[in-house]
C-alpha cells in the first residue's frame, strides 16, 4: 500500500500531460514517480511471478524484445513489456503505471524489458532478473558511452544481477569476457552466426568477433542461412537429448539483413532460457514469422497513397548493415540526419557507395551527409535541410519503377518525419 500515493500522482500527471500534449509527454509521469517513490520501479519489476527478463546491449534491443515477447505469448505466457521501447528509467516507470494496480502489483506472469545499458546499470543493484540477454557491444552514442570497454563494464554490471541465466552473443569478444566473469551459480547460453553466414557478410556485423567456429550446431543458437527476409537457425540440443541432432527452424524476418536474423537468434535463445522444458521450437518459429518491423527499423508504411520503407540508422554499424541490406538499385532514397548526430564524422567509417543515387539529403546535418555521400561517389540531387520540405518534394514524385521509396534517417530525422506525416511518434525513443 505504500506506493498508492505515488501511483495516484503518476496517473494524474499522465492525464494532464496527455491533455496538454496529445500523443506525447509519456515519460513525465515516470520522472515524477521516480522522484516521489524512488524504490517503486525496482520493487515492481522484481514482483512478477515468473520473474524478470532484461534485454540490453548497444544495438538490437527493440527488435529482440519484440520477438521475445511474441514467442513467450505464443506459449501462453502473460507478458508485461515496455512496448513503446521506453528503455530508460522514467520510461520504464511510465510503462508500469499503465498496468500496475493501486497496490503496486502486476497481473502478468513475467516481465520482459528492453533496457538502456547506461540506465540499466544505474538501477541494476536493485534488480533480480531471472534472465539477462546481452546483444552486442558497438561504438554507439559516443557522447554517452565514450568507449567499448565502458559499455562492456555496464553490461557486466547488469548481467551480474541475473539469478538463473545470461544469454550472450558468442561472436562478441567483449560479451564472451563478460560471460567468463560470471559466477558458477548462473548458466550461460550462447548464440551467434555460422562461418557461412559470416562469409556472405564480408563487412561483418559491427562487433568484435571471436568467430562462429566456437558455436557448432547443437551447442548454441546459430544463424546458418540468411536470404533476404528468410533465415534458418539451428537450436541447441538439451543435455537430456545429447544424442539427438540439432533442430533447425526457418523463419520470416521483419526486415532484410543478417542483423535481424541475429536478433531472432537472441530472442530464441532467451526464450529457451526463460521457458525451459516448456519451450517448443515450432511454436517459437511461427511466432517469430508473424511480427512486423519495429518502429522505423525496416518498417513499410503507406503515406499519401505510396508505400515507403523507413530505415533507422543509430550508429556506424547499423548504418553499414542497412546500406548493405537495401534492395540493390533502389531508385528513390531520401536521407535525413538530424541533431542527434552531434559529430557527423561519427558516420564517416560507413561505406555508402552502395546507395548509388540519393534524391534528397536532409536534416540539420544535410550538408555533412551529402559531403560524405559525394566522397563515396553517390550522386545527390538536392540538399534540403528542412525535413518537411524535403519530404513533401520526395513524396510528390511518381512511384519508382523498381523498389520502394526509401527514407533513411537518424532518430531525430525519424521523429521529424513521423510528425510531419502524421504518424505515431515515440518520445522515449528520442530520450
From TrEMBL:
Classification via Pfam families: Mur_ligase_M, MurT_C
PANTHER family: LIPID II ISOGLUTAMINYL SYNTHASE (GLUTAMINE-HYDROLYZING) SUBUNIT MURT, MUR LIGASE FAMILY MEMBER
Annotated ranges, domain Mur ligase central: 55-197
Species per Swiss-Prot/TrEMBL record: Cryobacterium psychrophilum
Name the UniProt record assigns to this protein: DUF1727 domain-containing protein
Molecular-function GO terms, alphabetical: acid-amino acid ligase activity; ATP binding
Domain Lipid II isoglutaminyl synthase (glutamine-hydrolyzing) subunit MurT C-terminal: 312-392
Superkingdom in the source lineage: Bacteria
